[in-house]
C-alpha cells in the first residue's frame, strides 16, 4: 500500500504535538542552540525541531538564544 502524505498532512499537523519548550531549555544546558551557533537539522521531515528553535530564538524568553 502506497501512502500519500499529501492527503494526511492536515490531520498530521492538527494532531501532531510539537516538542515541549522544556526540550529547548535542556538542550541549552548542553550548549546546543546557544548564541552565535548554527544548527543543522538533517532529515528535518516536518520541521518541528527547526521551527521550535526559530520560535525559541525569537521569543526573547531569556534563554540566551539569538
Series of secondary-structure elements, N-terminal to C-terminal: HHH
Whole-number average pLDDT? 77
Please tell me how large the radius of gyration is: 14 Å
Shape: elongated
- Residue ranges: pLDDT <50 for 5 or more in a row? 60-66
Number of DSSP E strands: 0
Largest sheet: none
Overall structural class, as computed from helix and strand content, comes to mainly alpha
- Provide a count of the helices: 3
Secondary structure: helix percent: 40-55%
Q: Span between N and C termini?
A: 44 Å
Can you offer a commentary on this structure?
This protein is an all-alpha fold. It has one domain. The protein has three helices and no strands. The longest helix has 12 residues, at 48-59.
Features of the shown structure:
66 residues; mainly alpha; single chain; disordered C terminus; 3 helices
Short description:
The protein is 48% helix and 0% strand. The chain has 66 residues and is mainly α.
Question: Helices, strands, pairings?
Answer:
Blueprint: H1 5-15, H2 21-29, H3 48-59
